[in-house]
Amino acid sequence: MTTTVDQRHSTIGALLRQWRERRRISQLDLSIAADISARHLSFVETGRSRPSRQMVLRLSACMDVPLRERNHLLLAAGYAPVYSAQPLEGASMAPVREALGVILKGHEPSPAVVVDRAWTLLEANASTALLLEGVAPELLEPPVNVLRLSLHPRGVAPRIANLGEWRAHLLHRLHRQIDHTGDEDLRALYRELAGYPGAEPEAPVEAPAAGEVALPLRLRTRGRELRFLSTVATFGTPLDVTVSELVIESFFPADEATAAALRAAQAGRASG
């Protein structure tokens, strides 16, 4: 993954200033939050003072900089990274994999997936197959990007009854993620998704229907419409880059007809 600046050619002061400006925080407010003087922070940003390792970590925490970028800041300041980035399949990540398995299994018969920061599909439970019916095989070739899979004209998009609303929701989430991380790869993904044939250049903002408490995913399948509510979960206290970027998204039935269809699909898999 990349960020909005080239880490190899940027000073720690310039990087901290860019993160502060991205977060729309003044020098004074950041200095108060980090318990340092505004003068000292100004000297750090202009390169007149080299921050300590602890100060880099403190400023990063105050600006809610993602763990991956905190490591980049430490390197720019001349310090070794402090946050590991273990591969999910590594031995040390066995407890994480076990927890993910329990969560995915526990959500059945509701579909649930695990994605990383790039929206790459890492794990999915058996119920997810219901969402993927009719998807072009090439979109399911690893690595699978779930946003591309959802909005591509040969993906799930033709079966989404409220595609305009759902597309706006997904693009808004992606835009917020770009704003939070400054990741250029995600920015490129946004441009790709927004440019799909037949898609509006700007995501529409639509008022909720009467009585709706959350935007449902309305999916046409097997001659009927299923309605899902989406929930998102993350690990609460991550100290590893990989773990901090894992997202578990679950799709729960928004009505009894959808719940019955999910139970029937699960029974069919069990009998088959």
TrEMBL record:
InterPro entries: Cro/C1-type_HTH, Lambda_DNA-bd_dom_sf, MLTR_LBD. PROSITE patterns: HTH_CROC1. Gene3D superfamilies: 3.30.450.180, lambda repressor-like DNA-binding domains (1.10.260.40). Residues 16-70 form the HTH cro/C1-type domain. One of its GO terms (molecular function) is DNA binding. It holds the Pfam family HTH_31. This is Transcriptional regulator with XRE-family HTH domain. The lineage of its organism: Bacteria, Bacillati, Actinomycetota, Actinomycetes, Streptosporangiales.
